[in-house]
Amino acid sequence: MTARTPLYECHLEAGGKIVDFSGWQLPIHYGSLIDEHHAVRQSAGVFDVSHMTIVDIAGPDSLKFLRLLLANDPATLKPGCALYTCMLNQQGGVIDDLIVYWCGPDNYRLIVNAATRENDLQWMAEHSAGFDLTLAEQPQLAMIAVQGPDAIAISRAHMPAEVATAAGELQRFQACQIGDWFVARTGYTGEDGYEIALGAKEAVGLWRDLLQAGVAACGLGARDTLRLEAGMNLYGHDMDESETPLTSGLGWTVAWQPDDRQFIGRDALEAQRSDGVAKELIGLVLEDKGVLREGQVLFDADREVGVITSGTFSPTLQKSIAFARVEAGAGAALQVQIRTRRLPVTRTSRVFVRNGKSLLSSS
Amino acid sequence: MNVPGELRYTLSHEWVRMNDDGTITVGITDHAQEQLGDLVFVETPEIDAVVESEAAIAVVESVKAASDIYAPIAGTIIDANAALGEEPELVNSAPYEGGWLFSMQPSDGKDFDQLLDAESYQAVVSSEE
Question: Can you tell me the ipTM of this complex?
Answer without folding.
Answer: 0.86
